[in-house]
Amino acid sequence: MTKLRILLAACTMLVSGFTLKAQNFEKDMNTTMYGRNKAVGKYAEIRGIKMYYEEYGKGEPLLIIHGNGGSIKNFVYQIPYFSKKYRVILADSRAQGKTLDNADSLSYEMIADDLNGLLDHLKIKNANVIGWSDGGIEGLLLAINHPDKVKKLAITGANLRPDSTAVDPYVQKMVLSENIKGADSLRRVKNPTAAMKNQLKLMHLLSYEPNIKSSALKKIACPTLVIGGDHDVITTRHTLEIFESIPKAYLWILPNSGHATPLVYKDMFNTVVGNFFSKPYRTIEKEARFM
């Protein structure tokens, strides 16, 4: 079970008001044209795969990256908002959505390099970047390994490692248990389909990666907005660790919030992230801390 599917499944187990929200999220994602828009959908041959991507709007480039097992449609609430001002670029990551992958292995570094390749394919010098969950991890890696490509970075629900110091212990144990059982079942299939092979790779990715040292974040030169829910699946102390390791960073912890900040708090999320992109980064130190 992927992170997004676990998220939506957990939503349905909560109080009736939030159950309705979860149902609305799924309905909106399943009925949107985003992620299956034949008018704008294209494939780019990048690093041995055909990466599916869509573009909306005009202006400064904005790359938006989905989470584990997700796809373009997960940003059904962000695309209409940001495409009014930006050239919004979204892709189905390797082994996810419409982007198939026949390789035996998968890593966050591979996906980040794919996204760098997509920007090269589109002849984009640099872009603002939004990453949710695993997309946030890939955003961090893009900024670390391809610093010239990221103008500003906003990440929500990202982690540097898969253990219980970063992921809520209950969630970490649940995800690992679900993925071990799922992986065992898939390995027993005699002639697995391409989709099954992709699922197996995603399970491994979610259970055993990433493995990024916090010291590596000091290489990130771009202004970064680090976001998390105060009851996220990623612990607030880990989100704080990420914030404190990036030289030019802001921190935004949403109260009364879990992992699904772009869904549950879509209007607030869009406004705050939009303001971050549009305004110059401000260094706040010494006397400026009083303001």
Share of helical residues? 25-40%
Order of helices and strands: HHEEEHEHEHEHHEHEHH
Overall structural class, as computed from helix and strand content, comes to alpha/beta
Query: Cα-atom Rg, whole angstroms?
Result: 18 Å
* Mean of all residue-level pLDDT scores: 91
Strands ordered across the widest β-sheet: 1-2-4-3-5-6-7-8
Termini separation comes to 45 Å
Low-confidence stretches: 5-18
Tell me the major beta sheet: 8 strands, mixed
Shape from CA axes? globular
Instruction: Give the number of DSSP strands.
Output: 8
Instruction: Please state roughly what percent of the residues sit in beta strands, choosing from under 5%, 5-15%, 15-25%, 25-35%, 35-45% or over 45%.
Output: 15-25%
* Number of H- or I-type helical stretches: 10
Précis, in short:
Helices cover 40% and strands 17% of the residues.
What do these coordinates show?
- Helices cover 40% and strands 17% of the residues.
- It is built from ten helices and eight strands.
- It has an eight-stranded mixed sheet with strand order 1-2-4-3-5-6-7-8, sandwiched between helices.
- A hairpin with a 2-residue loop joins strand 1 and strand 2.
- Helix 4 packs across helix 5 and helix 6 runs antiparallel to helix 7.
- The longest helix is centred in the middle third of the chain and has 19 residues.
- The termini are far apart.
